[in-house]
Write a structure and sequence with these properties.
This protein has 118 residues and is α+β, with helices and mostly antiparallel strands. Helices cover 36% and strands 21% of the residues.
Amino acid sequence: MENEKFCLECGEKILGRADKKFCSDYCRNVYHNRQNKGASNLIRNTNNRLKKNWRILQKLNTKGKTKVHKRLLDQAGFDFNLCTSVYTTKKQAVYYFIYDEGYLPIGNDYYMLVKKEI
């Protein structure tokens, strides 16, 4: 047989269209899940850490604007390395946001927690 094709996942002979790469939907899904595994894990883990940060800020900032000590954020497991956006004011104050919850470092280990008005 000319141009016999074999499944990229299981190696079975492929019947059907000439451009087909997999023998079944199952093989296609398994193949692509394995290809995307590393990137998917990174994205999922990062999103989980962002959600944790957001929940911490939301829990500590019940009034829309609150001053807290860094120790409270550290005890809750807040990750200062992650944020979804940064906003710099005209006076050069830098706010870090996780979605709509944010914080502003205000010196002496204190932070002003704020909620972005949407």
